[in-house]
Design brief:
Helices cover 31% and strands 24% of the residues. The chain is globular, with a radius of gyration of 25 Å. It is built from 14 helices and 18 strands. The chain starts with a helix and ends with a strand. By secondary structure, it is α+β, with helices and mostly antiparallel strands. The strands form five sheets. It has a six-stranded antiparallel beta sheet with strand order 16-17-13-15-14-18. A four-stranded mixed beta sheet has the order 1-2-6-5.
C-alpha cells in the first residue's frame, strides 16, 4: 500500500523522495481496511483518484471516512471551533448536526482530561469506514496531525497546530557552494563559463530566470574558499528539484552544497555584497529501501554506490528469498554524523552494475515488520 500511494503521488510532488506522501498507515488486524495518513490534505485528495485500482490481484476501494467533513463547508468551521474548545480543556460532544457519525471530540483527542500526550484514539474503526469494513479510507493529514498535536499540547489553538505541520517553504533562489574554488572565479571569463554550465544543468529541473556569481573578496580567493553561485528559478518547484539533484553531488572533485536563500539575499549579492554563507542542509540519518538490484550485487557494491553519503557496510541488509537467494532488494541504514540519507535519495534510478536501481524512504519499523514476518536479511 505504501509503495502504491508513494509511487502514484510521488510524480506530482517535487519533495516526494525526501518526504514521501504517506506519513502513516493504520492497518486493521484482519487486513480488510486501513487508514492512510498523508503529508498534506492536497495529497490525500489526489489519492482518492486511486479508487478501484488493482493491488495484489484485487480491486481496492479508496474513500473518505464516514465522519469526514469537507473543509469548504460551514460544518468544518464549526468542527474546528469545537475541537479548539476541547483542546483548551473543555472536551464535549460535537453538535450532532455537524455529522451524526462523527466521534465525540474527547475520543478523537485521546481523552484530554487524562494524561498529557495521550495518543489519539478513534473508536470502532470499521464502523467509520464508507461501505463498512470492506472499504479503504483516507484521513486528511492536516486533521490527523492536528488531533495528535492537540492531544500532546492541549493549550495550543488550531491555527498554531496546523502551522506546525507545514514544511518550511523553499524559495525560488538556490544557493550553490563549492562547485569550484574562489580562486577560480576571479576573472569574468571563468565566472561566465561556470554560469553557462550551471544554467545548462539547472534548466533540466525548471526555468532559470538568472544566475549570479559574485566576485570573491581577495582574501577568500587567496585562501581558496568555496565559490558561490546564486540561481533564480521562475517557479519554486524548479528550485526544489534542482536542490534535490545537486546537493551532495560531486563536481570537479568537490562535494556541492545546495540550499535555499531568500530573494533578498540574491538581490544583495547582485548589488556586490559578500554575505555570510547560509547553513548547509542538516545531514539526515534514516533507512532507504533499494529495489531492482542485480542479483550478484554485494554489500561492498552498495557502499560504493553510496560513496560520500556516510553508508557503512554494516548498515546494508540484503533481502533473501525462501531459497536463500537475493531478491534484488536491500535496506540500507545511514547512521552517524556523516550520514546524509536525504542526499543519497538523489541516486534514485541511477545504474548499479547493469540495472537501474529504485530508492524509497523506509524506516527501521518497516524492516522489523518484515523480519517478524520471517523475511531473511543478510
Amino acid at each position: 500500500l505504501r509503495d502504491l500511494f508513494n509511487g502514484a503521488l510521488g510524480a506530482m510532488d517535487p519533495d516526494a523522495l525526501a518526504n514521501p506522501p504517506v506519513v502513516n498507515l493504520a492497518l486493521d488486524p484482519s487486513g480488510k481496511f486501513c487508514f492512510a495518513e498523508f503529508r498534506t490534505e492536497e495529497l490525500a485528495t489526489l489519492a482518492l483518484h486511486l479508487d478501484k485500482v488493482e493491488l495484489c490481484g484485487r480491486q481496492i476501494k479508496v474513500g473518505r471516512p464516514r465522519w469526514y467533513v469537507d473543509p469548504s463547508t460551514p460544518q468544518y468551521t464549526a468542527l474546528m471551533t469545537a475541537v479548539t474548545a476541547a483542546a483548551n480543556g473543555n472536551p464535549s460532544l460535537l453538535p450532532s448536526a455537524l455529522n451524526p457519525q462523527m466521534p465525540n471530540a474527547a475520543s478523537i483527542l485521546g481523552g484530554l482530561g487524562g494524561a498529557a500526550g495521550a495518543a489519539p484514539v478513534v473508536p470502532n474503526l470499521a464502523a467509520l469506514m464508507p461501505g463498512g469494513a470492506q472499504a479503504g479510507a483516507l484521513v486528511p493529514a492536516t486533521a490527523a496531525a492536528a488531533a495528535a498535536a492537540t492531544a500532546a499540547n492541549p493549550g495550543a489553538g488550531i491555527a498554531q497546530l496546523l502551522a506546525t505541520t507545514q514544511q518550511t517553504a523553499a524559495s525560488t533562489v538556490l544557493y550553490l557552494e563549492n562547485l569550484v574554488s574562489c580562486k577560480d572565479l576571479v576573472s569574468e571569463e571563468e565566472r561566465s563559463d561556470l554560469a553557462d554550465d550551471v544554467k545548462t544543468e539547472c534548466s533540466k529541473r525548471g526555468e532559470v530566470v538568472s544566475i549570479h556569481i559574485p566576485v570573491p573578496p581577495a582574501e577568500s580567493a587567496e585562501r581558496g574558499d568555496p565559490g558561490r553561485v546564486y540561481v533564480q528559478f521562475q517557479e519554486q518547484a524548479g528550485a526544489i528539484a534542482a536542490q534535490r539533484a545537486l546537493h551532495g553531488r560531486i563536481f570537479s572533485g568537490n562535494k556541492v552544497m545546495a540550499t535555499f536563500v531568500p530573494e533578498e539575499d540574491y538581490q544583495k549579492a547582485q548589488a556586490g555584497e559578500w554575505l555570510s554563507a547560509p547553513p548547509a542542509p542538516q545531514s539526515a540519518e534514516g533507512v532507504i529501501k533499494m529495489r531492482g538490484l542485480p542479483f550478484t550485487a554485494t554489500k561492498q557494491d552498495i557502499v560504493v554506490f553510496f560513496t560520500g553519503f556516510g553508508l557503512e557496510e554494516s548498515g546494508v541488509k540484503l533481502v533473501l528469498g525462501r531459497d536463500g537467494r537475493p531478491t534484488g532488494e536491500a535496506y540500507v541504514y545511514f547512521e552517524g554524523p556523516s550520514a546524509d540519507m536525504r542526499s543519497a535519495l538523489n541516486k534514485h534510478r541511477q545504474i548499479l552494475g547493469s540495472r537501474y536501481v529504485e530508492l524509497f524512504p523506509s524506516s527501521k519499523d518497516e524492516v522489523n515488520q518484515y523480519l517478524s514476518a520471517g523475511v531473511i536479511m543478510l
